[in-house]
Amino acid sequence: MGAILSLFVNIFRPIYTPNLYFPIKPAYIQYRKTRGSEECTTTSLRDVVERHCTSLLKEYRPVWWLPGGHVQTGYCVIGDFSKVDKVEYDRKLLRLKDGGTLGLDFTPPANERTLPNDTPIIVVMHGLTGGSHEAYVRSILAPACTPVDKGGLGYRAMVVNFRGCAGTPVTSPQLYSGGHTDDLRQSLMYLSKLYPEAPLIGLGFSLGANVIARYLGQEGNKSRLLSAAVLGCPWDLVKNSERIEGDLFYREVYSKALGQNLLQMLRTNAATLSRVAAPHSPTAQALANALALKKPYLIDFDATWTSVAGATYPPFPLDSAEAYYKWASSAQFVHDIRVPLLCINAADDPIVRDLPIDEVRKNGWVCLAVTQHGGHLGWFESPERGDREAGGAFGLRRWVRKPVLEWFRATAEHLVGEQREVPELYEQDGWTVERGRESLGFREVEGGGKVVGVEGEGGLLSGL
Length: 464
Hints:
The chain is an alpha/beta fold.
């Protein structure tokens, strides 16, 4: 009955109103009536979304001169967002047991203001070759971390920069891939130690969304994230590859741009990788082969580098890019997610093809919202009247920040999270580890410093 009602509602929605896909059989959660209250009610994910994420029940109309997915996506790359949504960070460096280093960017900076230790923390995973400087990251963190008396949520945020991205030093042969979740896992361990009373809320963009969705499915009710939102998640990397490699236009525009962006990132870190990779190892050979590529398509880069050196543990090295895509796809983990997850995709996204609608309908913890327009991480719209902070020369805003901020407030401030069984942390030989998974661990090391969020990386296409 629930599926029939959902289908009926979606059919008769106005074309610009997002389609919402809810589970057939809901999971029920404990929900505080007010922030900090001990008085709770039992409710469903659908009720939370429909009551508190009202932007998803209203129209999203793209700005008239960016009507389709290609131009929305293109504007992510060519638009000037340097003068809006300014965010500054304090960077902390974590050394991991495998020798790698994570660059964790916190906002607001400590010298800007002091927040209570139980302040909700947004944990961000960025896109393919991005970092904390990306405009799509700042577009949400700027209002989320603005003080309440100035119209924001007053939250804290931490961006997990992929190894080798955004100036994060490379100290091991391991970089990152769309399926590598241990760096997120250890970052959350660090936050749990630093702020044990703070609710942790995930926010993922594109490849980072895939990592968060995989993490949630792998952890189930042991997730350190109380809830999460994933935007532009690629879900099925096999189907996405078939789309962008199988069409001449997509291959020449998207596959080539993504492949060359990854190659530029690898070149930036090549000297360090060549020193830390063991001679004649699969990583060393893959590095030499990848650096010999001229203008690779995405599948060429992934076949040469990511499928071989995407991780330093089994099942790597893999036989092909297709094998990597199959392993890394997050759609296969949707059924195991056990914390509330809001997913937002655009139907005209030129990079993401298939959406896990059937999987969402079978899991009471997941809601999928699909807008008709928005492209890949675009969702640009005209600013509301009186909005003096709108972005770029044309005064645009990203519509998607509205439902995401509503979701943060609804979950970070009201969810009890009683279904989770988060593992204990303890100290072992100078490392902080998690009981039952002692192969992972971290310790903070010197370095880091101030990071200005509008500073990108030379030679890389931003926005994807």
